[in-house]
Amino acid sequence: MLEKRVFTFFLILVASLSSASWAVTWDILNEEYGNGSGQISFKNTYTWQWGGIPTETRYNGYVNLNFTSALNYATRTNGTIGMPSDGNWRIDVKMTLPGKMGATIYLADNQATRWGSIITINHLYNETVAHPDTIGDYNLRIPDGGDIAPTGFDGSAPHIYSFRSVDGIVTMLLDDIYLGTITAGSGAQGDNCEFVIGFGSGLSPAPGTATMYYVKIASSGQTEWLVSDCCYGCYGLLDLTYLAQLAGNWLANACDNPFWCGCSDLNRSGNVDLADYAMAAGGADRVTLFEGVSSNFCVINIGTPTAVELYAAEHLKDAFELATAVRPVTGPSEGLNEIRLGVADKFTTAGLCDSASEQAYVITRSGDDIELVGKTPPAVLWAVDDFCEKVLKVSWPAYDSGPMLEGSQQSTLVASGICETDAPDFERRGWHMGHALDGPDYDQQIVDFMGHNRQNIKLTQHQHVPTPIVKNGLAERGIEPDTNSHSFWWLIPSSVYCASHPEYFPEIDGVRTCPDPGSNPGSVNIQLCVSNPDVAQIIIDKAQNFFNDYPEVKIFGICPNDGSLGWCENIDCVSLDGAQAGTGIHSNRLMYLVNTVANAIAISHPDRFIGTFAYDTTRPPPDVEVAGNVKIVYCTTGRNFMKKLTDPTDSTNALQISEIQGWMSKGAYVYLYEYYYYSGSEFCPSPIARTLCKEYPELLALGVHGLFAETNPAHWPFMRLVSYASARCAWDTSITYSELLNDYCSKMYGPAATSMQAYHLLYETTLRNEIPVLTMGTSAIQLFPPALESEMTTLEGYLVSAAVAAAGGSQANIDAVQAERNAFDVFKSVSVDPADIPGIGPNLVTNPGAESESAGWSSQIIGGGSYTMDTPFGSGHDGNRAFRIQYNSGVTNKARWIQLNIPITPGKKYAARFWIRADCLVSYGRLVLMQYSGEYDVYLSWEDSSGQWVKLVIPEFTAVNSSVDIFMEMYGLGTGDHVYFDDVFYAELPAEVDPI
């Protein structure tokens, strides 16, 4: 498991925002020492729990407390402080602690233990183990009981320790410098809180006199609280282990790198000293990035930049211009400070901590210059995006959003305490996108989103790697082509070898069987003769040449063709199965071929890997060991997305986890091929973001190395939140769904965030409650509309409210709300029969109800098996007949009714409707509208309807070709299972029609 270290301090002050007015309705405000109403005494207003009551000498605005015992704790006499309902408040404590005297402040929820939230000030520990619940100041956690007082801080100077709550998020600051977010016992919105202060000397010296200047409890104004909207709002807790390392390096002078010192020499002085610790605590001098009408910085690529580094520099300038309306110049430029971008080995005074991840990056200061440094070129882009998000408030939350500014443009931008290192939890993070938009299996919008959300792989078939738009497009976004795809057909092409070497192909029923020459679709259910040594040698040669030609490819995929059938029955291949012989499982023989190739590649290309699928008949783990340079991609076909993959209460998910663990016991490296879609996901928005947030930490703990998911570009308008969740949570698995949804809605919708958050929560929660199982084969169009019927009015109301609120934000916020409304309108139209739309065109389907029996239709059985295909009298939904498919026995694949070449007009909008009656215990099927464009085809599965007729609607979509084919299919798996189709309707929508 990758050790994650995050160390972040960003303090952003924006001068152009005006202060907001907050209503104050509670009774304890501005509690200060002194004379007059509302002023308090520690002696009279607090109860001292341990030790004696201190002597209190009051002055105008402060008090001296003299303790008679070594340890004292005080709580308010009335026990609680009533916090405001809006959750915005502050508590300031200003005090001096002479002689390294200790002080502890607690802020706890009412009736909860105070120990959950602890701030220890100037306290000495006589132990070497750090306290993970403790945040302290500059002499935090001195090891071995050392009696050390850092220069410039010995407790004699007054310091302000401040708790501040903004929208329920409680932060801690020291002298207005951000320390961290308090998550336990933090006094949530509307709570009553207990405020406790304790004083004591620790172990030494003897009790002394503490000067308490004031305790102030007050409401917070918007401008005052900008500091709480910085680094840790969505990035989690301060990594105290890292701070302890910094302290240890300082005290022990452990500096094995003269320029970096174990990531502790933050100011690059060559030593770890108090200045570094002060910088770590956010105390570095402020840097003005922008003021008035000009930028104080220029942007520089260090060394000879790669394509992704050049792009990162331009994106940084774009984001700066979006945030301030001024574009920085390309440096160097006299009189301007520098923002420097580059990989670590191009910086003479930089390193990247001791992170084991090659994907780590650092954001840091060098004097008044800022450096964005990655271990690799892609990490440079990620550093830029992190800097843009936290400092400039510019992010890229959706695939079609482009860079978005959170809030308004800034007239003054000041940053303080810039220091961060970060690295991902999962090593591999990305997508596979089927169909061609901008290139083969390539969509530029999705690739842009991936690059700006720190995703690093895209499944790319071998033959697509050299395609210019794919090769260059991925390189410019720092994304690696992952060639783990169905590839037997490409590795040993039939067009090259079938005639001369039929022995390379499977022996089936005693005959060598070749796929259609050079055809990828024709290779389904036809594999290779993996025992033939020439097959392995051809693949070895091809892999070596491929690695030589395309250095950007790190994994060469050797994956069986799609389908369950077509495995070689030759005795040599069967002998490789071992205990799997006769079971229909083929992972043993697959690993024989893969290991053979991997052993050769380990010698010729020791830094590269061979990959393969655990898919279909190779998904169960093998009995043999997996070579060390092999990466296994486990395919989660059929999993239930309504529960975590790690949830043992779901039998399908539990089986898959057991198989994943089985592969891990045989090989060192397993990552997942997910399917974040379901039948109809291009019409029904996805409700699975919560599942991803919950399961990713457990998958990481299990030892999974990464994941990517398959979708089509047509799905993406309906899975914006899911794609964001996958990117964010795969980088940082500590993010909760609540944090993710709040972060996403704030970025996307601006002032409409509250309404849109309510919309997403209601939509997802309702479906999760109503639909216990959601797989890639689930018919969303069949199940989602009934489940949400009672909530549709409320959902639409949230969208209406959001549209009104978004008008007060940016155009990007308005567009984001409208995009979600568009997806909702498509979903809503699923319940409207297109035949009832006024002005709809004539039905383009010949013999739509089988009343002329099979006229106009043809039948087809694929892959063998016994099916009955007929139009029995008396079976119709609305009439006498219907189209029937019944599975009887034999090799299972599918049978279908087909109507070809239905004329349509490119650019025109169409809609379709089918009636289906299915009685299938284990069989399943789908409807297909095929345009053969590679861009837009509809595949719609259905669920068992228990003998009842069900109407399925395919709502408005735009034709991209001049004809469409209709397939009504059944995948036979259960003897006697049958399905009926009737009243097929396919027509052109009237111009400018609103299908709702």
Q: Can you give a write-up of this model?
A:
It is a single chain. The two termini are 50 Å apart. The chain is 24% helix and 26% strand. The strands form eight sheets. Strands 1, 16, 17, 18, 19, 20, 21, 22 and 25 form a nine-stranded mixed beta sheet that branches. The protein has an eight-stranded parallel beta sheet with strand order 28-27-26-35-34-33-32-31. Strands 2, 5, 6, 8, 9, 10 and 14 form a seven-stranded mixed beta sheet that branches. The model is unreliable at 1-30, 109-118, 122-154, 184-192, 200-207, 219-243, 256-260 and 281-285 (pLDDT under 50). It has 996 residues and is an alpha+beta fold.
Quickly describe the structure:
This protein is an alpha+beta fold. The protein is built from 20 helices and 45 strands.
Question: What labels would you give this structure?
Answer:
996 residues; alpha+beta; globular; disordered N terminus
> Which of globular, elongated, flat, extended, rod-shaped describes the shape?
globular
Main sheet overview: 9 strands, mixed
- Tally of helical segments: 20
Number of strands: 45
Question: What fraction of residues sit in β-strands?
Answer: 25-35%
Mean pLDDT: 79
* Helical residue percent band: 10-25%
As a whole number of angstroms, the C-alpha radius of gyration is 32 Å
Low-confidence stretches: 1-30, 109-118, 122-154, 184-192, 200-207, 219-243, 256-260, 281-285
State the distance separating the first and last CA atoms. Answer: 50 Å
Indicate the structural class.
alpha+beta
